[in-house]
Each structure stands twice: as structure tokens, then as C-alpha cells.
Write a structure and sequence with these properties.
about 575 residues, Transferase(Phosphotransferase), domain 1, Phosphorylase Kinase, domain 1, elongated, six-stranded antiparallel sheet, alpha+beta, 20 helices
Length: about 575
């Protein structure tokens, strides 16, 4: 260790120790001739196991930084090798790391986080546009210094690398788990600019929520799960940054920067869309109440007319060209026959799930419909529940929608309510009841897997998780249910192999078992998935294409976990 008060290279006086890492110690030093403070990073030969490897890495790091000039990057002024140690003299960055800010104050104000995001986007964009591009690879709060003036500085380039176009994948797997992108851990291609964008997304998630992605529950819930007051626009930005498939992320920092600078417009656009839907829904609900009350005075002959009108409304809704008119027309149908599930299901599938996402606002509208009084005594949900078969079918479908498609917080607990109704049904097929039961258990795994309960109960294992995943994907799902459900179920299996191949391996699941599942799904995509309704053909084909691409990624993840070539 350097002695306080000692003079290095005849000009740098060591003032005090300001930082300690796994391989290095950082000191504050003064160049008394120039009357300027510097930071000196010391790596000792006797302090690391593979000193020569570390030394070469430091040489690469310093050489890289010497060629860079950006206000959010430190400058290297000197490199000294002496007496079995490597010394790097660099700018002294006054302030603290953002990890320190999180430790002391928790979640950071949204406005601060967005400003830091813009600065980080700026410096990462600068690195990515060098020739050759530089990929940082270890963005996290601990590597970001916050200066007293509010600006940030990116530190520690130990894992940075230049992008090599000819490489298929990285030769070294580096980065911090939890923050790092999936492709940083082998078998999933070479890291590129989109890798840093993923790391930026996880960093923003930690800063704005206060929840460390390296700690349980490990899953990156939408940020408004933790704080509903946070921006919808920022939530969408973070979600896009952290997509598992690099092709689904922002493709450049310039693209990301545009959305960061317009995140409030994203909010406004969202709210305008929500307002249109809510207005249409409220109109339909008012009509529903009035028509519902009137319907009780009709005699049996009028019921025939009523049914015919219901069917015509349902058919008419399919052809409506705007969302608000669709919602309104389905509302008219529901008001005429609230115990029939057809209009409810088509509202769910044709409107709310048309983009394969059930938004919190759409969820709120649907729940409002169900709790609205129909006749002053019964709600619409109670009217639907009077028809056990219809209610159970709707519960099953809605449970699947929450489980697979809900993009707000708490989707798994919300799915559980409806899946419980389905699994206890006396009208659904045994296949559907079994699937509902297993999906309910899987929802529980999301919260408990890898953790012991407070009562000391046995830890939920990945082996148990795998068993249930295999069960819900068994058989011809498209035949026993439908193509859309089959695709959603297959998506879950593929996603979990992609994300948890190593964890499944540790719990004894073989390579052959996981590969067999991927091969089976690939085969069923070709043989089982058929289009019976031309109106949803595009959606089905898009889901198939996306799933095919994800199977390829999952196979690479599986090969990487078992070191297959």
C-alpha cells in the first residue's frame, strides 16, 4: 500500500485513501508543482492472483481512456509501473457513486434519474461511435460518480472492449449479474451497443425504484409496481431497454435519447388514448345499466328479439374501425345479455389483447365493468357467474391474459384469482383445470423460487418449477384449447429455458430434456398451430415468428449453459 505523505514519481504526494476494491486501492494525491489534485489507482502484484492478466487488462483500459475525450469520462494523465505495482493517475472526481446515494437515500427522484439517463446516453453514444466502437459492458450505480454540480462521470473501464465485427461472440464473459445483458454470459452472441442499453435500463430501474436487480425477486417488474406515481413513459422506456432479445431493444443511444427527451409526450399520448377508451367504456356502462333494467320487463317473445340484437351487436363490434366504437358496441351487447360470455371474451381478445398486451388502464376498465351494478342488486360479474359454464370459461381466459399479457404490476397475483376459479370449475375440461392449477403454482414460484420461507419451509426448487412447466406444455394444446393459448404456453417454456438454463441444470435437469422441449415446440409450431379465423391471422403469424426467433435464442442459452459447441 502507498504510504500517506509519500511522494510518487517525484511529484504526486499521497494525501489519503479514498477507495478500496477487490483488486485495487484508490488514493487522493496532490501534484504540488501544479497545485492540482489527482486520483491514483494502485494494483499490487502481491494483491491479485493473476497479476499479469490484470496488468494487461489495465494497460488496455488506460490505453483506451487516453484516446477518449468527453466531459462525462475521466482523463488519464500518467501510468507508472514500479516495485511490483501498477499505478494509474487520473482525474480526481469529487462526489460519491450513485450506489452510495441509493444506500443512503433509497429510490432517487424521477427527474434526477431521467437527467442522469440523458447524460449516460450521451457518453455511451460517444463510446459506441468510436472507430472501432467501445462497449462499456459494466454499467451500474457503483460505476457512476455524481459530482456536486449534478453531472455524472463514468468510471472503471475494466470490462470495456472494442467491438469486433468479425467476431460471432465474446471471448470473455464479463459484467455484473442482475445488471448485465443475457448475451454477456456466453453462447448468445457478441456484445454490442445494445448490451450497454440493457445495462442502462437495469441501472435506471434500480435508481428509480430503489430495488436492486441483483437481489430477490430478481424479476424486473414494471417500475410502477413499486411506485404507481412514476411515469408511464419512463416505464415503457426501461421495459424496452431490458428486453431479452437485443433486436427488441433500442438499437442505438440516439434512438433511446429521443424517447428520454420526450418521455412526457409518451405519457400524454398514453393518457389521451386511455381517455378515449375510458370515455367509450363509461358510455357503454351507462347504456348497460339502463338497458339491463328495462330488459327485466320484457316477456318471452321479446327475449327472442333480445338475443338476435345481442348477436348483431357482437357481429357489428368486430367490424368497427375505432377502439372507442368497438368498446361501445360490445358494451351494448353485454347490457342485453350479461350472462353470456361471448361479448366479454371478444372485448378482451379483439380490443384489449389486440396488441398482445393488457394495459393497467384496460384492466381498470374491465374491472369497472364487472363491478358495475346491472339491476341495482347484481353486478355484471354476478350476472355472468349465474351461468357457470360461461363464467368459468371467462375466468380461465382472463387468468391467462393476466398471466401472460398484463404489462402492469402484480400480474401473477391478479392471474391467481381467476385461475383459482378455473381450477375449481365443474364445467371446464380437465386439461384446462390442470393447466390453471399449474399456472397458479408457477405464479407462486415467481415470488418464492430460490428463497426459503420465513417459517423455514423447504425452498422452492427449479426442478419442481421444471416439472410444472413440462406439464402445462404437454399434449396438443391447440387442439384441446386454441392456437393463441398454445402460443402463450410455449412462449413461457421458451422464455424460462432462455433465462434459467443454468438454474435448471444445477437442479439436475438434463440438456437432452430441455432440448427435447424446444424441439417439440418447434415441431408443434409447424403442425398444430392453425388459423381458423382469418381476422386474427396476422396476429397468430406474428406470434409464431417471434416464438421461432426466441427458440433460437433459448437454444443458444442452453448450449452455453452446457458448454456445447
Amino acid at each position: 500500500m502507498l504510504e500517506i505523505g509519500s511522494l510518487i514519481d517525484g511529484k504526486y504526494k499521497i494525501l489519503n485513501k479514498i477507495g478500496q476494491g477487490g483488486m485495487s486501492t484508490v488514493y487522493l494525491a496532490m501534484n504540488e508543482r501544479a497545485n492540482k489534485q489527482w486520483a491514483i489507482k494502485e494494483v499490487r502484484k502481491d494483491g491479485v492472483a493473476d497479476y499479469e492478466v490484470v496488468r494487461q487488462s489495465l494497460i488496455v483500459e488506460t490505453d483506451m481512456l487516453k484516446q477518449l475525450s468527453h466531459p462525462y469520462l475521466p482523463s488519464i494523465v500518467d501510468v507508472i509501473e514500479e516495485q511490483g505495482r501498477f499505478l494509474i493517475v487520473m482525474d480526481y472526481i469529487e462526489g460519491n457513486t450513485l450506489s452510495r446515494a441509493l444506500q443512503e437515500y433509497g429510490a432517487q427522484p424521477q427527474e434526477y434519474v431521467i437527467e442522469w439517463a440523458r447524460q449516460l446516453c450521451d457518453v455511451l453514444g460517444y463510446l459506441h461511435t468510436r472507430k472501432p466502437p467501445i462497449i462499456y459492458r459494466d454499467l451500474k450505480p457503483a460505476n457512476i460518480m455524481l459530482r456536486p454540480d449534478g453531472s455524472i462521470t463514468l468510471i472503471d473501464f475494466g470490462t470495456a472492449r472494442t467491438y469486433k465485427r468479425e467476431n460471432i461472440e465474446d471471448t470473455t464473459c464479463l459484467g455484473t449479474r442482475g445488471y448485465a445483458a443475457p448475451e454477456q454470459f456466453g453462447g448468445r452472441g457478441q456484445t454490442d451497443a445494445r448490451t450497454d442499453i440493457y445495462c442502462l435500463g437495469t441501472t435506471l430501474y434500480h435508481l428509480v425504484t430503489g430495488h436492486n436487480p441483483c437481489e430477490p425477486p430478481y424479476e424486473l417488474y414494471p417500475i410502477r409496481h413499486w411506485n404507481p406515481a412514476l411515469s408511464q413513459g419512463l416505464e415503457k422506456i426501461i421495459q424496452k431497454c431490458t428486453q431479452l432479445n437485443p433486436a427488441d431493444r433500442y438499437q442505438s443511444c440516439a434512438e433511446l435519447m429521443y424517447d428520454l427527451e420526450h418521455y412526457q409526450e409518451l405519457d400524454q399520448s398514453f393518457h389521451r388514448s386511455a381517455a378515449i377508451r375510458m370515455g367509450a367504456f363509461c358510455t357503454a356502462a351507462v347504456l348497460a345499466i339502463g338497458c339491463g333494467i328495462a330488459a327485466y320487463g320484457f316477456h318471452s317473445a321479446a327475449k327472442t328479439i333480445e338475443v338476435r340484437s345481442y348477436d348483431s351487436y357482437v357481429e357489428e363490434a368486430k367490424g368497427e374501425v375505432t377502439v372507442d366504437r368497438q368498446v361501445g358496441t360490445y358494451g351494448e351487447a353485454i347490457s342485453l345479455k350479461p350472462s353470456d360470455e361471448t361479448a366479454y371474451l371478444e372485448l378482451l381478445n379483439n380490443v384489449y389483447l389486440a396488441d398482445d398486451n393488457l394495459s393497467p388502464e384496460e384492466d381498470a376498465q374491465l374491472r369497472q365493468l364487472l363491478i358495475t351494478s346491472y339491476d341495482g342488486k347484481n353486478t355484471y360479474e354476478q350476472m355472468l357467474a349465474s351461468n357457470a359454464q360461461a363464467y368459468d370459461d371467462f375466468a380461465y381466459r382472463l387468468g391467462l391474459a393476466y398471466f401472460y399479457c398484463y404489462d402492469g404490476s402484480g400480474n401473477k397475483p391478479m392471474a391467481s384469482k381467476w385461475l383459482t376459479i378455473a381450477q375449481n370449475s365443474e364445467t371446464l375440461s380437465q386439461n384446462r383445470k390442470d393447466r390453471a392449477q399449474r399456472l397458479g403454482r408457477i405464479a407462486d414460484y415467481y415470488a418464492r423460487i430460490g428463497r426459503e420461507s420465513k417459517s423455514g419451509d423447504a425452498t422452492v426448487s427449479y426442478a419442481d418449477y421444471w416439472k410444472d412447466l413440462k406439464q402445462i406444455t404437454a399434449g396438443d394444446i391447440a387442439k384441446t384449447d386454441n392456437s393463441t393459448t398454445a402460443l402463450m404456453v410455449y412462449k413461457e417454456m421458451v422464455s424460462q429455458i432462455y433465462s434459467n438454463a443454468n438454474n435448471f441444470k444445477k437442479d439436475g435437469i438434463t440438456y437432452e430434456d430441455m432440448k427435447a422441449q424446444l424441439d417439440n415446440i418447434s415441431k408443434r409450431l409447424q403442425t398444430d398451430i392453425t388459423i381458423t379465423d382469418t381476422s386474427n391471422a396476422d396476429r397468430i403469424n406474428q406470434l409464431k415468428d417471434t416464438l421461432s426467433a426466441n427458440i433460437t435464442l433459448a437454444q443458444k442459452s442452453l448450449d452455453g449453459a452446457f458448454h456445447k459447441q
